[in-house]
Amino acid sequence: MSTIVFDGVSHSFGDRRVLRDLSLTLTERRIGIVGANGSGKSTLVRLINGLVTPDAGTVTVDGLLVAKNAREVRRRVGFIFTNPDNQIVMPTVEEDVAFSLRKRGLSAAEIAGRTREALDRFGLSAHAAHPAHRLSGGQKQLLALAAVLVGEPRVVVADEPTTLLDARNSRRIADLFRAMTQQVIVVTHQLDLLEDFDRVICIEDGAIVADGAPAVAIDAYRALLA
Amino acid sequence: MPIQALLAGWAPAALMAGRLLVAVALAALFTLTTTVTAVLEGFQRLLRPFGRWVDADRVGLLVAITLRCIPLVAEIVTEVLEARRARGTQGSLLALAVPVVVRSLYAADAIGEALVARGLDD
Predict the structure, then answer these.
(1) Which of B112, B111, B116, B61 is nearest to A73 (CA)?
(2) Sequence ranges of the domains in chain A
């Protein structure tokens, strides 16, 4: 598993401080992050692949400073967004998956082979040549997952990947996360998804308020809601 | 077309309208029969001699994202029209244009972020 280290990280958007002097080391296989809207969880996970650069402090992935080695880090860290529509770049399903493999020095045949494999794994083979925007919401999130995993990242970070999905599709996505061999870091409001995770972190107002086994951290989060 | 007719007479105006119609039909045929990946490769080959001044990859990506954004913007317009109807502000151009522009800009921001996350930070 990769080691992700936050050291004394603070960040503000304008006047609003979203993270306050936060230090954290992540090494577990499956890590969940919970917290209210606006608590700073999305910003926290965006620091991991350099989508946000902190005002103060440093973030490293396997010893690589994210601010200096963003490109290398992004190859190791795949990112799943809440809304797959924003993540799908190419007009058709197979082209979007193949897009992740550009500029990697692979032959066209290799790209086609790996794309086919990924579509197969996520049950999208029948839609390979279809326009991506015609897929259902659940299929779009599956496509986003396929397009990230085809690049073979070591870490998969997901920011509320099931928020826009119905119960069946969110269970499907949750099962896929469970089956992944990669290190997984998931921000979610769907607390049952985290029950068998190795570690859950609860963020409130830009600081860590609970960190530990799922039962402990989720109880702390529920107590905050009460 | 009426302006053309006024300035240049009916025959040139009809010709112009016909040309436009053919161009649109050809564009539709093109998008039906050609994959975007093929278009990207075509651009790369076409622009290779100018490689020193133009980044062919980037031009190809621009075309791909433009095509991808058409259904996205269409969806935004549909949703805004629905919201406008639901709130009873039908017919107001402002109630259409402002949210469509604002939401398109938000979407553009999010797509930019996703492009960076997918390794296109150059």
Answers:
(1) B116
(2) 4-225
Q: Across A66-115, where does the E strand assignment appear?
A: 77-80
Q: Which residues of A fall within a CB distance of 8 Å from B75?
A: 85, 133
By percentage, how much of chain A surpasses pLDDT 90? 77
The ipTM estimated for the assembled molecules is: 0.82
Cβ contact A186:A32 at 8 Å: yes
CA neighbours within 13 Å on the CB side: how many for A110?
A: 10
> Across the interface, which of B68, B111, B118 has its CB nearest the CB of A91?
B68
Rounded Cα distance between A82 and A164, Å, is 7
Pair A177, A192: CB distance under 8 Å: no
CB contact under 8 Å between B119 and A81, yes or no, is: no
* Whole-number Å distance between alpha carbons of A77 and A151: 10
Query: d(Cα B5, Cα B11) in Å, to the nearest integer?
Result: 8
| Measured distance CA(A220)–CA(B9) in Å, rounded | 78
> How is domain A4-225 classified at the CATH fold level?
Rossmann fold (3.40.50)
Instruction: Give the helix/strand (H/E) hosting A81.
Output: none
A10 CB contacts (<8 Å, ≥6 apart)? A17, A19, A20, A21, A22, A54, A55, A56, A57
Confidence of residue B121 (pLDDT cuts 50, 70, 90): low
Question: What per-residue confidence (pLDDT) applies to B72?
Answer: 85
Q: Do B119 and A103 touch (CB under 8 A)?
A: yes
Tokens (6 digits) for B39 = 């278009």
- Rounded alpha-carbon distances, angstroms, from residue A113 to A33, A132, B41: 35, 20, 19
Choose among B67, B63, B22: nearest CA to B42.
B63
Tokens of A44: 């926290």
Burial of A140 (0-12, 13-18, 19+ CB in 10 A): buried
Residues B38-62 have a mean pLDDT of 77
Q: Which of A50, A91, A100 sits opposite B118 (nearest CB)?
A: A100
The answer to whether the Cβ–Cβ distance between A49 and B115 falls below 8 Å is: no
